[in-house]
């Protein structure tokens, strides 16, 4: 027999355990010149199983965070030698936005205006010293949960709902970044555009639900074979693959191998369905990402013209 209260406390306890498990992977830098404060804050955080790295001034904290982009949160005092909390916050905001790095400023009661100035300089939140432990934990947890939520939403926004592949928004955000980097460093980057052959017939013969199953099945095959590269569902039955460090011939070989393997496979068991794909591979980096995708599209069109189930480079 479970009472409402014991049910509540059970769920509460499970929630706490999950939180503590997550905390073990969260890295927090504590920048404090007062050894006593530094030890106190560190012990509060370690009670909740966070990984804590201490810094004795702003310059030290800056160096630590610049070297380790996996750090989630900085708790920083205002008054410190070498570099104060504002300078530190300003310097970090040039590199990390508010969801990449949470900054919580600390300020003494005798300096009431510091909290607002911390926020203006880019801090996510602030705490007045001395604080009570409960408020400290609430602020830390609240900010971390907001960061997690934002990252989750960002992930959703980058994915296609049917296939869970990346979507166009991802392509024109992260894909563009890959393209820019390749151009800047003079490295190869190939773009493949893939389209299922006669897909309309599958819908017309078996219905839209089976068509969807085919799209899901091919997406998981793409992921298991070509998962090293970002795979984007462009819409419908068309996919785009961004292949950094692959010249035209290498990219062609990889895509054509996939095409060849797929042509002999049963992709959906009941009803038994086999499909083929056509693909175009473009690698001329002097073009913009858009132009390179269009070039791959033209080559895809040629593959269709030439009889489908083939790759054109
Ligand atoms: P081709 O070999 O020339 O590419 O022929 P095709 O039939 O594959 O090309 P077409 O562009 O004529 O048809 C694509 C079809 O894809 C039409 C559309 O109904 C279907 N389609 C687009 N999105 C979805 C989807 O999310 N689910 C399903 N089941 N079908 C879709
Ligand atoms: Mg100080
Ligand atoms: Mg098609
Ligand atoms: Mg078509
Ligand atoms: Mg199409």
From TrEMBL:
4-aspartylphosphate is found on 77
Parts of the chain that traverse the membrane: none
Question: What EC class does the entry list?
Answer: transferase
Q: Which GO terms describe its cellular component?
A: plasma membrane
Residue ranges of domain GGDEF in the record: 187-313
GO annotation terms (biological process): cell adhesion involved in single-species biofilm formation; negative regulation of bacterial-type flagellum-dependent cell motility; phosphorelay signal transduction system
Taxonomically, which superkingdom? Bacteria
For this UniProt record, the keywords arranged alphabetically read as follows: Phosphoprotein
**Residue ranges the record marks as coiled coil:** none
Q: What is its EC number?
A: 2.7.7.65
A GO MF annotation of the entry reads: diguanylate cyclase activity
Q: Where would one find the signal peptide in this protein?
A: none
**What positions does the domain Response regulatory occupy?**
27-144
Reaction(s) the record says it catalyses: 2 GTP = 3',3'-c-di-GMP + 2 diphosphate
What is the protein named?
Answer: diguanylate cyclase
Organism the protein comes from:
Oceanicoccus sagamiensis
Task: Tell me the stretch of the parent sequence this chain holds.
Answer: 118 to 430 of 432
